[in-house]
Amino acid sequence: MFKESLLDKTLYRIKRLIPKSVFDFFAPYYHAALAHAGSIIYANPSKSLKVIGVTGTKGKSTTVYLISKIFEGAGIPIAAIGSLGFKIKDKEWPNTLKMTMPGRFKLQKFFYEAKKAGCKYVALEVTSEGIKQKRHLGINFDCAVFTNLHREHLESHGSFENYYKAKQELFARTSNVHVLNADDKNVELFSKFSSKRTIFYGIENGDLKAVNLDLKPDRASFEVYGTKFDINFGGRFNVLNCLAALSAAAMYGIDLPRTKPALEKIKDIPGRMEFIQKEPFGAVVDYAHTPDSLEAVYKTLKNDCHKLICVLGAAGGGRDKWKRPEFGRIAGEYCDEIILTDEDPYEEDPEKIINEVASGIKLGKRITIVLDRKEAIKTALDKAEKGDTVVITGKGSEVSMAVAGERKIPWSDKEIVRGLLK
């Protein structure tokens, strides 16, 4: 649906001709003007929709996905935008943009199409980079959801303070409904903004709490106010994602008994601790791209397998380089065998990225370096025995890899794993 338009190409060419120092100075005005222009061109479609914006470091994509499935299960027409894909009512297609939150014109066109299709709600993944580039302007947000906050995108924003201030902008601009993770240590950074209605959720704290948790890598159960949920995806973090979605649904009159069948119908979250195979050994694909996410995935899987074998790359070339030795350290702590490989290098030397990941791994760990990602995955699967788990992180449900020359090549960890397991 989202093909690069002539306008997109023209603006990109003009931008390339302007000296970077000049463009950086005028960038906020440029981005803001484009955002408002997009809204005007498509007649401000979000004014006729209730837009639910979800922000945070982790869990945004899953929460948007869960909200869309809950509303759909309740018979409410909804559209959704996130890194897991796009949805307008019952039509769904993948996000191939390598951009979680699309550009201004694409966003406004999507809202226009959603409105035309009869949707009443849109669940939108709102990123700090999107806000920095003013993509949120011209959108009428009705609800803001906060999942959690950790260090991320520091090279882009310049500091952790700039990073969370970008995310705060969503709450400053949303006055009706706020949904907040009461268990997160940084929740006060977001709870200070006023709204007509606010709901806190959590496992330890909150208005809407999960109790009687039973957590497995591939499933979980929990209760909320007497309604028991048995979901087909595991981990404590996914219980919190469910609570975020349940809280947002509650704010729009969808009660817990109505949400239960919708959540329990979901077989897995695409690319989020997704089991491609469970026997004789587990094969899991996950998007984890922050140290906290990586540790949560490894910790969850480690408790239920004999040997944990990981295929690991790093954050995209040129981005958040501080993560690389941290990824190595975490892999060294939880994984029995580590295979380091290429992952979205962009213009950076893949071997340099891998060596920086390796620098964080403690001595004595079994490390194999295989630059070719397909061969790396094959190596991991060949090493696995009954009762082991192979986990491939970094790309999740993505369908392309960013390489040198500003190219995107077709790629799917899931399809590679499926093909190798045949």
UniProtKB/TrEMBL annotation:
Cell wall biogenesis/degradation keyword on record: yes
GO terms classed as biological process: cell division; cell wall organization; peptidoglycan biosynthetic process; regulation of cell shape
UniProt KW keywords: Cell cycle, Cell division, Cell shape, Cell wall biogenesis/degradation, Peptidoglycan synthesis
Keyword Flavoprotein applies: no
Start and end residues of each Mur ligase central domain: 54-249
One Pfam family named in its UniProt record: Mur_ligase_M
GO cellular component: cytoplasm
Listed pathway(s): Cell wall biogenesis; peptidoglycan biosynthesis
Subcellular location: Cytoplasm
Gene3D superfamilies: Mur ligase, C-terminal domain, Mur-like, catalytic domain
Domain Mur ligase C-terminal: 271-396
Any GO MF annotation of the entry: ATP binding
Main location: cytoplasm
InterPro entries reported for this sequence: Mur-like_cat_sf, Mur_ligase_C, Mur_ligase_C_dom_sf, Mur_ligase_cen, UDP-N-AcMur-Glu-dNH2Pim_ligase
NCBIfam families to which the protein is assigned, alphabetical: murE (TIGR01085)
Entry similarity comment: Belongs to the MurCDEF family. MurE subfamily.
PANTHER family in the record: MUR LIGASE FAMILY MEMBER, UDP-N-ACETYLMURAMOYL-L-ALANYL-D-GLUTAMATE--2,6-DIAMINOPIMELATE LIGASE MURE HOMOLOG, CHLOROPLASTIC
This protein's name: UDP-N-acetylmuramyl-tripeptide synthetase
Organism: Candidatus Yanofskybacteria bacterium RIFCSPLOWO2_12_FULL_43_11b
